Amino acid sequence: MSTTPFVTDAALVAAVADKDAGALRELYERHGAWLHARLIRRCNDPEVVVEVVQDTFVALWKDARRFRHDGEVGAWLWGIAFRRMVSRLRSRKDVVLIPDWDVPAAPQQVLPSAEDLVLLGVEYGDLAAALRRLSPEFRSVVQAVVLDGLTTKEAGRLLGVRENTVKTRLHRAKAQLRTALTEPQEGWR
Amino acid sequence: MTTGTQGWHADPALLASYLAGDLDAVTGASVEQHVSRCEACRAAVGHLLEPQLVERTWAGIRDAIERPPLPVPIRLARRLGLPESTAVLLAAAASLRGAWLVGAFLSLSFATLAAYLSGGTALAPFLLVAPLAPVLGVATAYGPRQDPLEALVATAAYGRTRLILLRTIAVLVSVLPVTALLGLALPGPRWLAAAWLGPALALVPVLLALAGFVGPRAAATVVLLGWSSVVVASTRAGLDPAWPVEAAQQGAYLALAVAACAVIAVRLGIDRRRGVAL
C-alpha cells in the first residue's frame, strides 16, 4: 500500500452524490480498469463490456446516495456492474457469463512465479485443488454466488435452475470443499 | 482473508496473463479476488489496460452525465418503448404539449357538462367538440407554421408521411381515452358514449386527405365547418339530438373515411416522392 490515496473511495462516493464530476473521474480511474478486466472474463463481446462499465458509472452518478457506507466501494460497484451485465445478456446465448472451468489453461508463456504460487497457496490452502475437483454444476454455483456475489435467486436465473437447486448445490459444494480441506477457510462457511 | 494478502501483490506478468485470459479458472478467480480488494493491484491493472479503451469508456460516461435530462413527455415515450428520436419528434408537436392537451380536455369537459346538465336534450356541444378534438390535434401536429422542427423535417431524410402518421397516432392516443371517459358521463343510451368515435375516426383521414391538397390549416377549417354544419343543422331541423351519430349517418362517415383513405393511397401510389400526398 505504498500509494495510499489522500481521499478514500467512500469519501469520493459522497462527493459524487453531491454531483462532483471530478470525484467520478477519480473513482473511474481507480475502479474502471479492473471492472473492465473482470467483466471481460465473463463476456466475450467487448462492446457489451464497455457499455456495462459505462452504465455502472452512470448509475453511480445517479445513485451515489444509495451507497451505504458499510462496505467496500469496489464490491458495491462490482455488484452493480455484474447484475447489469446479467440482465443485459439474459436474452443472448452467444456470450459466456461464467468462465469455463474445464478449458485447460492456455500454454502460458508467463507462468506465475514460484513465489506467487506459494503465496496464492498460502491464501487459499488446498482450495484450488479442491475447487478443481468440483463437478461443473457445483463450480458454476460457487462461481456465481461465492465469487461473483450474486444472491441465490439471481444465480438461479443466470444458470437457468431453480433457487432451491442453487441452494442445495451450494450447500453440497461447500460441504465437499470442507471435507477436501483439513481446515475450512474463513469466509466459506 | 485479507490478513494473508497484505504484503503480497500480483506481479505484472501474472496480471498481464490474467488480462489476456491465459490463466485457468481457479488461478484467474484467485487473482480476481485479490485484485478486487487490493488497491495497488487495481492500479496495476489500470496501467496494463489499453489507454484508448479506458478513455473511450470514460467519454461515454461523461456524455451521459453531462447531457441535460430529457423533458417528461420524451421520457414517458421512452418508457413506452419508443426510440429516443421518435420520442423527440413526437414531443415537438404543438398538439402534444401540455397546454394543448389541457385545452382539449377543458373544452371536452364543458361540452360534457352541458350535455349532462341538459339531461340529454342538448347533446350538440359534446357531439360538436368530441370528434373535432382529435382532428384539430392532428391538424396542429404538423405543417410549416406549427412545427418547430419544420426546417429540420423538410431537410432530413425522414419520411414526412411517416412523421405525420406517427403524430396522428400519438394525438389519437392522447385524446381519445379522455374523450371516451367523458362520454361515459353522457345521459341517454349507453351506445352514445362510443358513438362519437365514428365521426372522430372518419374526420381524421378526411383531414389528412384534404391537407395533401390545401395544407393542414385550410383542411382543418373545411373539416371544422363541415362537421359543425352537420351538427348545427340537425339541431335546427329539430331532429333527435343523437341524429348525427345514428346508424345511417355512421355508415356515411365510414364511406367518407374509406374514400379519404383511398385518395391518400392513390396519391401515395402516383407520386412516391416523400410526403407529397400528405
From TrEMBL, chain A:
Q: Which SUPFAM superfamilies match?
A: Sigma2 domain of RNA polymerase sigma factors, Sigma3 and sigma4 domains of RNA polymerase sigma factors
Keyword Transcription in annotation: yes
Q: Which CDD domains does the record associate with it? A: Sigma70_r4
Q: Which Pfam families match?
A: Sigma70_r2 (PF04542), Sigma70_r4_2 (PF08281)
Q: Cite the InterPro entries for this sequence.
A: RNA_pol_sigma-70-like, RNA_pol_sigma-70_dom, RNA_pol_sigma70_r2, RNA_pol_sigma70_r4_t2, RNA_pol_sigma_r2, RNA_pol_sigma_r3/r4-like, WH-like_DNA-bd_sf
The RNA polymerase sigma-70 region domain covers which part of the protein?
27-93
Keywords per UniProt: Sigma factor, Transcription, Transcription regulation
* Annotated ranges, domain RNA polymerase sigma factor 70 region 4 type: 126-177
Family in the record: Belongs to the sigma-70 factor family. ECF subfamily.
Q: What is this protein called?
A: RNA polymerase sigma factor
